[in-house]
Amino acid sequence: MIIFENVSKSFESYGKTVEAVKNVNLQMEEGKIHGIIGFSGAGKSTLVRMINLLERPTEGKVILGDTEITLLSEKSLREERKKIGMIFQQFNLFSSRNVYENVAYPLKHSKMKKKEIQDKVNYLLELVDLQDKSHAYPSQLSGGQKQRVAIARALAYDPKILLSDESTSALDPQTTKSILKLLKQLNEKLGITIVVITHEMQVVKEICENVVVMENGEVVEQGDVFNVFANPVKQITKDFVDSTSNLSKIHELIEEKVSITKLKEGECILKFTYLERNASEALVSQISRKFNLDVNIIFGNIELIGEHPIGGLVSIVSGEAKNITEAIEYLRNKNVGVEVILDARVS
Ligand SMILES: Nc1ncnc2c1ncn2[C@@H]1O[C@H](COP(=O)(O)OP(=O)(O)OP(=O)(O)O)[C@@H](O)[C@H]1O
After folding, report:
1. Which residue numbers delimit the ABC transporter domain (predicted)?
2. Domain 249-344, CATH among 3.30.70.260, 3.30.565.10, 3.40.1280.10, 3.40.50.1110
3. Which listed residue, of 104, 171, 315, 345, carries a Cα 20 to 30 Å from 126's Cα?
4. Was domain 2-236 assigned CATH 3.40.50.300?
5. Ligand 1 centroid vs 264 CA: distance in angstroms?
6. Is 43 touching ligand 1 by the criterion CB < 6 Å?
7. pLDDT for 173-225, tens place per residue?
8. Ligand 1, atom 18, residue with closest C-alpha
9. Mutate to test the pocket of ligand 1, among 7, 11, 12 (most ligand atoms within 8 A of CB)
């Protein structure tokens, strides 16, 4: 478990105090992938850099397992840091060393024998699928391959925790996917706890089980990814949800008076959203049959988080006003969010 207790961090900059992280209380479970999401300057990097004390909290405690690392001596801290790997957006490889030497670098001052180091590096390169590149130099590698080298290097001491600071932000979508897939595999295979800093909702959706939303140095929402994104409370969380969904586009279409949004009498535009897992019932056909309604789906955005559909549909529903009202009630009782976007029901 990674625990933050009343953790704050401020910096003095040009005679001003910047409160980068404010009174954070958090618990991150072992063996899971945690996402930290927020816009630039929210305090994500500062928070995560306090896990390995690259930044020291101004106030509060950071506890890893049974160890309060904020109390450790420099020597014990050096040992503790070996259990924490870190990867960055810019890879931070040595350009004058080849792939093998980059991965072997952290083991240079270990007690391991030359052959042990060789075996270890080969194992790590296999783990990240780069066995055939061990003699290549960073300049001869693609961005995705460089990040794989950095991941292999970060795993040299079999860390229990891997910190990833925007590790996919410099990569194209396809390569991002492959790096995220690799992180997920490492989490499953090695049981390593991963903390992923990102400003992209897609990254969180793709691999994280838990999410922490940060704004202005504060943790404003946290929890299981499905629960946080199915029922976002804070505006910033809603904005992140909207960033990968087209559902809010309906408001623009209405404003632009696009023809599909010009309702006839008896119609209304409804937005349905999944609020809980296991939403497997055929709800659209149910309301259509049960309440004698026509449901015309204009657009939808449904994806899976883990195995559970999340997202929703925007539809034009037509039928008797009373029936539409009852259908809305019916869906809400089934824990489907229903928002009446535009209403031309006649009673
Ligand atoms: N060493 C430092 N000295 C002064 N101010 C700092 C320092 N490090 C961070 N800050 C400030 O703390 C705040 C939080 O920065 P931080 O890098 O943690 O945010 P972030 O959410 O990771 O942003 P980004 O996504 O842009 O990296 C910012 O206002 C930043 O300018």
Report:
1. 2-241
2. 3.30.70.260
3. 171
4. yes
5. 52
6. yes
7. 999 999 999 999 999 999 999 999 999 888 998 899 999 999 999 999 999 99
8. 43
9. 11
